[in-house]
Amino acid sequence: MTVVPTTSTSARTFVKIIDAAGHPRLNREVALAPHLPAGLTAPLLDSGLHRLGTLDVRYACYTRVPGAAPGMGMPGIDGVTARSLAEEAVHRLGRLHSWIPVGHIDQMLRDPLDHGGFTSQAALFVEVENLAALDRHKTIPRPLIDGLTAIAEHAPQQAQAVVPVHADCHWDNWLVHDRRVTVLLDFEWTRFGEPADDWFFLARFSGPHTQTVLDVISQATMTPLETLRAECEVREATYLASDLCIALKHPDTSSRMAAERLHALEELIIERYWWRHTR
Question: How many whole angstroms separate alpha carbon 43 and alpha carbon 170?
Answer without folding.
Answer: 20
